[in-house]
Amino acid sequence: MIKYTTPLGKVCMTSDYFAELVSTAARSCYGVAGMATGSPSESVKSLVFGTDFPEKGVRVTEDDGRLLIELHIKVTYGLNIAAIVRSITHKVKYAAEDATALKVARIDVCVDDIV
């Protein structure tokens, strides 16, 4: 749960909301084949819930009112990985800052698989 205060009051957002927001933005980038499981617990969730669930490959935390985002992705073979990561970073940062009043401190993109 990510909480912050605005002049109009207190806002609370669930981690699922941010996971879906970030995942959708990342998957829409050219060269991204899909999201990868980032941890063993996500691998178990993948077996239970199926191949696609909101927080798959995404971890969003808050530190002093700024977002820290970690992504685990699969990329398409034969494409420039640095260009894909740069595109994802820009698009995810824009989507997260546009949807919320929070700034993004850091985005870590881990390429787990090439398909």
Structure description:
The chain is an alpha+beta fold. It has a single domain, classed as Cation efflux protein, cytoplasmic domain (Alpha-Beta Plaits, 2-Layer Sandwich). Helices cover 37% and strands 37% of the residues. It is built from three helices and six strands, in the order E-E-H-E-H-E-E-H-E. Strands 3, 4, 5 and 6 form a four-stranded mixed sheet that branches. It has a two-stranded antiparallel sheet with strand order 1-2. Strand 1 and strand 2 form a beta hairpin. The longest helix has 19 residues, at 81-99. It is elongated.
Annotation keywords:
single chain, two-stranded antiparallel sheet, alpha+beta, 6 strands, 115 residues, Alpha-Beta Plaits, four-stranded mixed sheet
End-to-end Cα distance: 33 Å
DSSP helical segment count: 3
CATH architecture name: 2-Layer Sandwich
Rounded to an integer in angstroms, the radius of gyration calculated over CA atoms is: 14 Å
Strand content: 35-45%
Instruction: Look up the CATH topology.
Output: Alpha-Beta Plaits
Structural class: alpha+beta
CATH superfamily: Cation efflux protein, cytoplasmic domain
Number of domains: 1
* Helicity range: 25-40%
Shape: elongated
Task: Provide the CATH top-level class.
Answer: Alpha Beta
Low-confidence stretches: none
What is the string of SSEs from the N terminus onward? EEHEHEEHE
Average pLDDT confidence is 83
Number of strand elements: 6
Largest sheet: 4 strands, mixed
Topology:
Blueprint lengths: L1 E5 L2 E5 L1 H13 L4 E4 L4 H10 L8 E6 L2 E10 L5 H19 L3 E12 L1
Parallel strand pairs: 5-6
Antiparallel strand pairs: 1-2, 3-5, 4-5
Helix pairs in contact: 1-3
